[in-house]
Model the fold of this input.
Amino acid sequence: MEKEKLVELAYKASEYSYSPYSHFKVGAALITEDGSVFTGCNVENSSYGATICAERTCALKAVSEGHRKFKMIAVVSGSNEYTYPCGICRQFLSEFMDGDGVILVHDKNKGIKEYTLSEMLPEAFHL
Ligand code: THU
Done:
């Protein structure tokens, strides 16, 4: 699948964002090694701490349906700047993505930027 398409799916997923506290809508879409695609949005909670980011929603949907090898993930938001995965999500993704797995971020004016997971999370922790 093209990168543009994955970004588009991430935007579509962001429409389902449940973010009544931050009003910050985030969407993610990932593709697995076998070409399956999963999407997710951030889901907030009144306790704040129980909030789940879009990337982890998306990853959990994939893993809970038997897909453990991610090739690429796109992360977008309603803001006018690039939105990067938070530290917890980078670590979470590293469980299911190799260091050369691709993370796409998108800005409506500047377009797609591309990173490898090891660029975003050098020396990732693994047991
Ligand atoms: N958020 C994500 O969904 N992904 C990130 O990588 C960063 C933050 C969400 C969590 C919360 O719902 C909102 O953005 C503001 O922090």
